[in-house]
Each structure stands twice: as structure tokens, then as C-alpha cells.
């Protein structure tokens, strides 16, 4: 599933949550559970969009974690709606299934992104090892490399 398809799917999920909450009874219980479900259900799509705009792989992974939490929380509120008898199970079940599927998709995406980040770190370590080998073979390289590091440190001081 592509990024744009997931954006559409999470937005559709939010719209369905809004319609479901609108169908809840206007009792104290209905309002309380509805308010919680609206918050968590609509934030799935908003946080997924934020994850897609992440400035780094680490930020993307962290924001996907928020999406997972919100989708799972939405499932919880829908389970309570069913068990409290506020709406018939057959009316809530399809949306509950969608919340579970979105949770699974986001967990898989997060795991995949984390594996890629770990592989990238290993690659960076390999690059550092090759620089050390070059420095061992060429003592002049290390001193110029060290000067460059100290120069960049100086630039960071205020």
C-alpha cells in the first residue's frame, strides 16, 4: 500500500469514526465514549500525515508509534461501545476491524522502517571503520580530518 493510499485510508477511517460517534446516544456514556473515540480516531490520520512529513527516519518511526497507539486506543473505545450496548455490534464491528487492520499495517511499517534504520547505522559504522583504516595508513589524513572536526566544533560555539 502506498503512502497516498494510506493517507486516504486513514482519512476515511476518521470520517467513519465521526459518523459512528454521531450515531451514539446523547447520554452521558455516549458523549464520554464518543469524545474519546473522536480524539483517537481522527488523530490516526493526522499523525500518519505528520509521520510522512518527518524530518528523519527516527522521527518517522516515532510518529508511527503514535499512530499505532491512537489506532489501538480507537479499538478500545469501540469495544466499550459494543460491550456497553450503546450501538449494535454489527454497526461497530466493520470500523473496529478497520482499526485493527490499520494498527497491524502501522506496526509492520514501523518494524520495517526500524530494520532499515539499523541497517543504515551498520553501514555508517562500516564507513567509519574504513576511515580509520585510511587514517592508519596515512597519518597526515587523520590530522587534517581532526582539524576539520575541531573547525566544525568551533563553528557551533556562540
Summarize this entry quickly:
The protein is mostly helical. It has five helices and no strands.
What are the salient characteristics of this protein?
mainly alpha; elongated; 158 residues; 5 helices; de novo design (two linked rop proteins)
Structure, explained:
The structure is a single chain. This protein has 158 residues and is an all-alpha fold. The two termini are 47 Å apart. Helix 1 (3-23) runs antiparallel to helix 2, helix 2 packs antiparallel against helix 3 and helix 3 runs antiparallel to helix 4 (89-137). The protein has one domain: de novo design (two linked rop proteins) (Up-down Bundle), CATH 1.20.1440.60. The chain is elongated, with a radius of gyration of 24 Å. The protein has helices at 3-23, 28-52, 57-83, 89-137, 139-156. The longest helix has 49 residues, at 89-137.
Topology diagram in text:
Layout: H1 3-23, H2 28-52, H3 57-83, H4 89-137, H5 139-156
The CATH topology is de novo design (two linked rop proteins)
Name of the CATH first level: Mainly Alpha
Question: How would you characterize the largest beta sheet?
Answer: none
Helical element count? 5
Q: How would the global form be characterised?
A: elongated
What count of structural domains?
A: 1
Q: Alpha-carbon distance between the termini?
A: 47 Å
Decide which structural class fits the backbone: mainly alpha
- Runs in which pLDDT lies below 50 for 5 or more consecutive residues are 149-158
Q: What is the H/E order?
A: HHHHH
Amino acid at each position: 500500500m502506498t503512502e497516498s493510499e494510506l493517507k486516504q485510508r486513514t482519512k476515511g477511517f476518521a470520517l467513519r469514526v465521526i459518523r459512528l460517534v454521531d450515531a451514539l446516544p446523547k447520554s452521558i456514556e455516549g458523549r464520554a465514549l464518543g469524545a474519546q473515540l473522536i480524539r483517537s480516531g481522527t488523530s490516526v490520520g493526522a499523525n500518519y500525515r505528520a509521520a510522512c512529513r518527518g524530518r528523519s527516519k527516527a522521527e518517522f518511526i516515532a510518529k508511527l508509534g503514535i499512530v499505532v497507539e491512537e489506532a489501538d486506543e480507537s479499538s478500545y473505545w469501540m469495544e466499550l461501545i459494543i460491550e456497553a450496548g450503546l450501538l449494535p455490534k454489527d454497526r461497530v464491528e466493520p470500523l473496529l476491524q478497520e482499526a485493527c487492520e490499520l494498527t497491524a499495517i502501522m506496526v509492520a511499517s514501523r518494524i520495517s522502517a526500524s530494520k532499515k534504520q539499523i541497517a543504515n547505522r551498520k553501514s555508517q559504522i562500516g564507513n567509519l571503520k574504513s576511515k580509520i583504516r585510511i587514517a592508519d595508513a596515512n597519518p597526515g589524513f587523520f590530522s587534517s580530518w581532526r582539524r576539520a572536526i575541531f573547525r566544525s566544533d568551533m563553528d557551533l560555539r556562540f
